[in-house]
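The following record pairs a protein chain with its ligand, adenosine-5'-diphosphate.
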Amino acid sequence: MKNDTWGRVKQQLLESVGRNNYANWIEPLELKKVDNGVAVFSVPTSFMANWVSRNFSETILIHLKAANAPASRVEFKVEPHKTPAAPASEAPAPKAEAAAPAPQKAVEPQVQDTPAEDLPGAPLDPRFTFDNFVVGKPNELAHAAARRVAEGGPVTFNPLFLYGGVGLGKTHLMHAIAHEIRDRDPSLRVLYLSAEQFMYRFVQALRDRQMIDFKQIFRSVDVLMVDDVQFIAGKDSTQEEFFHTFNALVDQNKQIIISADRAPGEIQGLEDRIKSRLQCGLVVDLHPTDYELRLGVLQTKAESYRAQYPELKFADGVLEFLAHRISTNVRVLEGALMRLFAFASLVGREIDLDLTQECLADILKASERKVTVEEIQRKVSEHYAIRLSDMIGPKRVRSIARPRQVAMYLAKHMTTRSLPEIGRRFGGRDHTTVMHGVKRIEELKGTDSQIADDLEMLRRTLEA
Ligand code: ADP
Ligand code: MG
């Protein structure tokens, strides 16, 4: 394997494991050789060898295979590095690579667990299974739909269209479906690839005058999964081909599963006839995670790390703290936890709140969610079905004054605004009025369970 292949693979690893993991664990790896199907890397310390091998070897292998490297195993040899890092020329160049992903070679990647070896699909991540998917309110519908499709049987909705923000589990669910279908019936031809790969396949077939083969392959699968379909928006001839492939498969009653970062109707630059085709099946979205789901994911991941590293200790409240403070996507959550573990095992300390804050300062800062007083007023008005103008206006009847106090209470607890600043945003009220309102709600919270529930609900929607 050439060094520039490893350079390219590194670039993909950067995207798949994130910048921090990349800098800590991937960047220091040196590829020594690929011999008899074994890719040998040297690493500076045995701790690193251990950690990388446990946590990243599968990912590295997947990407090596995808780049056509003749590797079926990876090995890490401890070898103190003389030069600190790889030469600059070998370091991946994010921009250039993103603009022009290397077209796949004519030879198909050797994905060993693919039953239909001739399919031009992307490798599946072995960790993305239904067993490893934590179900909560925000993703229960998507999960149920995915399960249903994975069961096989007659095709009831076509396509299944999954959409949602980044890092919410779309790719995970798609891989889970593919694993499940293949496990149940290895003879089925399941083709999973990203829309980007679809496009490169298509362009390559055009260039090599192999359109007949291309069409034949794509029309002969039993299940077609195309990830991140928004990628082909604005790419006219790719869309055209996608549309024909899609129709041909639907006509044969073959299951199609598509994902995107937004609803079909909202993908700009996508032809209308494709939009309406995509809307014909079942369209389900993955909502942003809520506190419970985040905590569930953290607990599951922490369990599996602890199984590997029993010596690691967790203080109470750390996972809750993370679930509360990191309100972005699951990928960020996973990255944070992994870094925490790595750090804790390096310094040999129990993972407590101090260590967490120290180690994750940048992530915590980046995901600080800034709720505004205006947002609070809007949500609270909606919740109690009063007008926003009344929330800020002079009326003092209970049915309006109470929601106003709830909003003041939340503004005090969820923003960094001072009492006078909050007062100003409530139609120029005095800070003592705000203080009184906050106090009143604090009292009621203990005695009135309806108010307590309302507060909990509102806080959650505002944090989501
Ligand atoms: P997307 O494709 O929507 O951007 P991914 O499917 O790549 O997101 O998910 C990002 C990461 O978060 C993956 O490592 C995935 O395993 C993990 N993840 C997302 N949702 C869940 C979940 N509900 N349970 C467990 N892991 C999850
Ligand atoms: Mg994805």
